[in-house]
Design a protein that fits this description.
alpha/beta, about 10% strand, TIM Barrel
Length: about 325
């Protein structure tokens, strides 16, 4: 796989600083039951990295000591971690809102038969990847049969209340473009998703998050192979909107890798760009329990144009 960081290093992206921390995003490991083309984590079935029990305990200690209101659990497929459910229970006992970055097909994996009931019982918000509402596009990006499995999973979640009006069980979907292009308007595409999935399959959901593909890891390597990397970077830079700097996720989010090391965002984690903290080469979660990160400088490179191009892009979708 081609390395993308050398192509992003000489950056003119403006400097920015952190604000009050609201969300702790924890990557439980890179093991996944899928290998998606757009995956910036390069996750897959052969990955073995997984967060151990000691680091899970440090995550819980950090939640107790901080003012964090949201725990965003990701992977890989985070549900494949043997500690996933214990972490969710601990966070909910602390009255922390939990979001599960779910690929939907994990619901059909052996041992996950009761996962929907567990998530619903703990009022976990599901953020589910469905990069298109058309079967051929999803299968091209994520593998043959993934679309059908995803629809089955969505129907299962709907049946227990997820995505249904007034249930309080939130089910959001995530869209990624198929290639080297900016995503369409989030509002317009959300209407298309609602209409098509409801009419064709009877599937309901709350919101659609539209994300820009980041020029790193598997997707970035593909761009280099096809000779499209510079074109894509020029597209992102040409669509840069400075007002999007106010809403980028790194202002209020802290990313934790499977070993407990800290980054300003998930993308920096995948590039090996650690949180800048008092001159340390790599800050660990245990070292910052109780620390105030407000005003801390954010590590930026050229990939940050992906979050600030056009309508903007973050873990919570477009900004406008």
């Amino acid at each position: 796989m081609h390395a993308t960081l050398p192509r992003l290093d000489a950056s003119d992206f403006p400097s920015i600083r952190r604000r009050r921390l609201e969300t702790l995003q924890v990557n439980l490991g890179y093991k996944c039951n899928q290998s998606c083309l757009h995956c910036h984590v390069n996750a897959g079935p052969t990955r073995t990295e997984i967060m151990d029990r000691e680091t899970i305990s440090e995550v819980i200690a950090y939640l107790k000591a901080s003012r964090v209101t949201n725990l965003d659990v990701t992977g890989g497929a985070p549900e494949l971690s043997p500690h996933f459910r214990g972490l969710v229970l601990a966070a909910r006992n602390l009255d922390v809102h939990v979001m599960d970055r779910c690929n939907l097909t994990i619901l059909e994996q052996p041992g996950q038969e009761d996962l929907p009931q567990f998530l619903a019982g703990n009022r976990v918000e599901i953020v589910a990847s469905l990069p298109c509402y058309l079967e051929e596009n999803v299968d091209a990006q994520r593998g043959k049969g993934v679309f059908e499995a995803s629809i089955r999973a969505l129907k299962t979640l709907n049946a227990i209340g997820y995505g249904q009006p007034e249930s309080g069980l939130v089910l959001n979907l995530v869209y990624n473009p198929q290639g080297a292009s900016l995503p369409p308007s989030q509002d317009g595409l959300e209407l298309d998703y609602h209409r098509y999935l409801d009419e064709r399959f009877g599937v309901r959901f709350n919101r659609l998050f539209v994300l820009t593909n980041m020029p790193i890891q598997r997707f970035g390597s593909m761009l280099i192979t096809k000779g499209q990397f510079e074109h894509y970077m020029n597209l992102l830079k040409g669509a840069y909107r400075p007002e999007n700097l106010e809403a980028v996720m790194c202002r209020n989010l802290l990313s934790v890798d499977w070993r407990g090391y800290l980054y300003d965002c998930d993308f920096n984690q995948m590039l090996g760009l650690p949180l800048a903290w008092r001159g340390r080469p790599a800050a660990h979660l245990r070292d910052l329990i109780g620390a105030d990160l407000d005003g801390n400088p954010i590590t930026v490179k050229d990939h940050c144009y992906g979050c600030t191009a056009g309508q903007g892009s973050s873990c919570g979708g477009a900004f406008a």
